[in-house]
Amino acid sequence: MILDLFRLDGKTAVVSAAGRGIGARIATAFAEVGADVVIGARSADQLAEVAAQVEALGRRAIVVEGDLGSREGMAKLVDAAVSELGGIDIVVNNAGGTMPQAFMDTTEKAFDGALRWNVTTAFNLTQLAVPHMIERGSGSVINITSVAGAFGDRGFAAYGTAKGALLKLTRHMAQDLSPKIRVNSVSPGSIATSALDMVLQMPELEKAMIDATPLGRLGTVDDIAAAAVYLASDAASYVTGRDIRVDGGIEGSNLAMGIPDL
Known about the structure:
It is a single chain. Helix content is 44%, strand content 14%. By secondary structure, the chain is of the alpha/beta class. The protein has a single domain (2-242), classed as 3-Layer(aba) Sandwich (Rossmann fold), CATH 3.40.50.720. A seven-stranded parallel β-sheet has the order 3-2-1-4-5-6-7, with helices on both faces. β5, α5 and β6 form a beta-alpha-beta unit. α1 runs parallel beside α2 (44-56) and α4 (108-136) runs parallel beside α5 (157-177).
């Protein structure tokens, strides 16, 4: 059965920034198709809620609360997966995000921070997890990037550059880690999550985002989770070094409305 290829029975996944939004939904989606998960974020309350959803699906959830911006924080995720669940099969690098800001208002510290939070985190978690995936004989790494990494837009000098670098890192890691480990990415477009709460409270901005999207709606966390399940599973066993854009067809927009001209 073709649907069997999408199952993750007996697999263990590590998902960073899984307390809410895209990361949380990927974790529960993995549980729906049979995987146990290690989930990390800063908020214990949010992680507890996600863990309860995973356990309600009959799978195990190991919670790791703490700072994922450091290599030590990522090591705690890997250590928990190995000690509690016996190994690692899947890594989802979901940690990231940077607020839009005018180029001339973006400090060197903010620019460096965007690169570290969106790119170095993925490098660290992947590098730490690779030896344990190799022990299992194979593995899948999924980087959550953004369409902002693929086109230019006002206000995205830091975030867009960081996500573009993560897209490039995806391709390099796919070559370095083949043939045992596949590395791919998912580039979301405008997704209705808590990160967009500020925008969604302004009808004119929400309308502008929808109007810029050929499919005429905002994306959902389910849209992203479905792509992650595919890439994590044997259904994508011949896919590596590739990016799946789950973006409603967007090719550029005024996503950072309100950024003034010089």
